[in-house]
Write a structure and sequence with these properties.
It is a single chain. This protein is α+β, with helices and mostly antiparallel strands. The chain has two domains: 55 residues; 91 residues, GMP Synthetase, Chain A, domain 3, CATH 3.30.300. It is 41% helix and 20% strand. The protein starts with a helix and ends in a 16-residue tail after the last strand.
């Protein structure tokens, strides 16, 4: 049983704070641990560390850009997203790739599909556009999952006047 208590120390501290008492109570049901039980605890500790690392690396990380400034670098979270920098980067990409579109907003939040953190840029455009190059550039800046969503048209379609009588 001593070895089992020692093996529990291989788990991350946050995991132990939450589950240690319950886990020890479960282990006390066994008189003598089998090798498979020991291996299971070892693999569980590795898995717990992987999950801990994945859950704590959901921050946007910007890279050094050619000619970049210190304000562009560092970790960002949802509260600290520099919208002005994101807008400037997006608009520079629009000009660079000569895309007929207009910036609307940017949002940093978990995806509804798989809960991975996503940086979403909203834009207006009149037609369908090939956004692969722009998305690749933005991904290179932020090192994060990027979504580009069209939320409207730049020039709304003119509405035909249905009130005029064409038979005169």
């Amino acid at each position: 049983m001593k070895i089992m208590r020692w093996l529990i120390r291989l788990y991350p501290r946050s995991w132990r704070d939450r589950y240690q008492e319950e886990f020890i109570a479960m282990l006390e049901q066994y008189e003598r641990p089998r090798i498979t039980d020991i291996l299971d605890i070892l693999f569980g500790a590795v898995d717990a560390h992987i999950q801990y690392r994945m859950n704590n690396n959901n921050k946007v990380q910007t890279s050094s850009l050619k000619g970049g400034t210190a304000s562009m670098q560092g970790d960002l979270d949802s509260d600290a997203l520099d919208k002005a920098f994101a807008q400037k980067t997006f608009e520079e990409g629009i000009v660079k790739h000569e895309l007929p579109m207009q910036y609307v907003d940017v949002e940093y939040a978990p995806s509804f599909v798989d809960q991975k953190t996503t940086l979403t840029f909203y834009f207006r455009a009149d037609n369908r556009l090939d956004l692969k190059a722009l998305c690749k550039d933005l991904g290179g800046v932020y090192k994060q999952r990027i979504q580009l969503k069209q939320v409207g048209r730049i020039n709304p379609k003119p509405q035909e006047d249905s009130c005029t009588d064409t038979k005169q």
